[in-house]
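Protein modeling request. Please complete all fields; requests missing the sequence field cannot be processed.
Requester role: graduate student
Desired output: 3D structure, token encoding
Chains: 1
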Amino acid sequence: MLGAGVQRDLGGIRVLPTTSVVSSTGQHRSDAFAQVNPLRKVPALKDGEFTLAESVAILLYLSRKYKAPDHWYPEDLQARARVDEYLAWQHTALRSSCTRAMWQKMMFPVFLGERVPPETLASTLAELDSCLQLLEDKFLKDQDFLTGPHISVADLVAITELMHPVSAGCQVFKSRPKLAAWYKRVEAAVGEDLFQEAHAVVMKAKDLPPADTAMKEMLKPLVQVLLR
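Delivered output (228 residues):
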């Protein structure tokens, strides 16, 4: 898998050896990477001659191929539908607001040297707060995990998105004890060391050197999207 990391066991899933592709340097836009993922985005998976894009598709592929314990992506029709429901919702809700919050609060001013209008950032943070409320009320409720009593790929996807605004200094869990307790359960289920390793890159994003002129030019289309 092209992303970052090493071979691991995660609750019965054997995670493939990975190759680091640093998106901040534009490696994912190279012709060589396009042979694996024509979309030129990370992550991407190459399993023999088979290639696959999109993080959710990759997670589900790995869980099926390696016959992961049932709780990750249940065989039961309704239990699986709950996981699918979250994965369908998050893509245009939590994921979108988390990404824009990180870029507007940290990446634009620190990495790109771009000023973000205060009202734009305020609107994005308000949208993030609304998504967090929905995450608690609609999905977590009074359960241990997002789709029931056991951790699933829904929790992995959710925590990954939330660590983006956390890396930018957003206090995502501070005033939300229910969500904070869920965070601790996810970390314990994954294992603290692996959890920290998985999020090491995004947590160090604030330490990136300023982008050069070529990088700024390459990211112009992204800037336009993330400042909406």
